[in-house]
Amino acid sequence: xxxxxxxxxxxxxxxxxxxxxxxxxxxxxxxxxxxxxxxxxxxxxxxxxxxxxxxxxxxxxxxxxxxxxxxxxxxxxxxxxxxxxxxxxxxxxxxxxxxxxxxxxx
Amino acid sequence: xxxxxxxxxxxxxxxxxxxxxxxxxxxxxxxxxxxxxxxxxxxxxxxxxxxxxxxxxxxxxxxxxxxxxxxxxxxxxxxxxxxxxxxxxxxxxxxxxxxxxxxxxxxxxxxxxxxxxxxxxxxxxxxxxxxxxxxxxxxxxxxxxxxxxxxxxxxxxxxxxxxxxxxxxxxxxxxxxxxxxxxxxxxxxxxxxxxxxxxxxxxxxxxxxxxxxxxxxxxxxxxxxxxxxxxxxxxxxxxxxxxxxxxxxxxxxxxxxxxxxxxxxxxxxxxxxxxxxxxxxxxxxxxxxxxxxxxxxxxxxxxxxxxxxxxxxxxxxxxxxxxxxxxxxxxxxxxxxxxxxxxxxxxxxxxxxxxxxxxxxxxxxxxxxxxxxxxxxxxxxxxxxxxxxxxxxxxxxxxxxxxxxxxxxxxxxxxxxxxxxxxxxxxxxxxxxxxxxxxxxxxxxxxxxxxxxxxxxxxxxxxxxxxxxxxxxxxxxxxxxxxxxxx
Lengths: 106, 487
Description:
The structure holds two protein chains of two kinds. In chain A, 39% of the residues lie in helices and 4% in strands. Chain A is mainly alpha-helical.
């Protein structure tokens, strides 16, 4: 646990590493801006780390009274057709019924 | 200036044959034509489709007149899918996206006789509190054109406030229905998590998002909720708790009800005129026979950081789907670039600053080494906040507090300071973190004519109680009947 010694100042390479994970290409101004702003926001969020949560279970969801999945019959039903699914694609291979993407391997 | 009436007036007039649905629709588009250039509430109008539906309703009275929302024009926030009608979430990345399906709420509205008239501007992917994060245009507050309408459902709030449509749908992840409703002087209801299907809502933070109505009265909100609420096989988080009794609950009787007021939470940071509006509003309810009780929400002050850790974490995974492959914008290729480079450039050009900021923050708090300290910790404090509210609502029927700590601020004032923008969500994020239903009702004006909102928070699935108190309050106050200048 890193709970009480977190870096709230972000270096340029910290921001680049996060942007890479997030698949975001940032320009110079954005790197500088986000380094400062993420630092400020997390500095503010430090108050959460001061709260004693020993033995407290996390809340990931507040769903109550939902049993839709359990009750749903295991039957096939109509779904989106292939052409409709391709209609918004920026580079569809309509006849093949596929989405085209740039090369993945060298 | 002509304007559209309330939902109740409109549906009654069409049902009784006093007005045709076509006439109602024409009025809507006339008012939009006259007002929306200055206000910027809409991103897309669907005039032909609306008039065609209206004609069908007029031609087949036997089929339509018995339905609860017959002839009711509705505007839909542009992050809710409409089949065949552009749905952008006010983002470049979805600028020309045309959904193949309607959201469940849109299907239910239309099946009940409502008519979709257009899509409303919002903060990009509903991330913001001012609608200034729209990639397309600014939306102005009809009470003061140099001020924000609130957000993220700013366009929906303005459309209703300025009399362009009786009802609009919004979505609320941290206050995005209630806060713009408060700033524009209309009613905004965030239902209990699971009360309304999220199928077809472009997801921002899936454990917090709910769709709900913005209206001119509690009666209208009850009419719309009764139609859009209920279990949906397409949303596994939708609830089977029975729906209904909302209109029947509006009996004006609040005698013996206990209204909890978190006095300690209100001690700091609330604008004096907003506080005065709250006190006056509470006095009205006490006069009607309700009892005010002091409650303690000890962890409520941690709600903003908890919210921004949880919401951004969920957003960073939800928005991973916008990658330029299956739908939406793709950045033109630069040389022999590979798939990963295409993703990164598409997202760089397709998303605006606030969305990038939240994806970055969410990615960081979920990343290896920081997950426990930020995300898990935030989820634990979320449990403490839930316990606070549960306890408070054991002793009371509803909780009352301001919707926003200040009136609408000036356009541009907080754009450069995201943290300052986030702090304005102090009273609204609690209902999302706990899943509880909440409503904002107009409760007066500041000295320079800016609306103030009173927020009520209720027990799970007890929207009937919220609407009952809100309606009783409206009976003794003139605020809901006011229109902004030149509307």
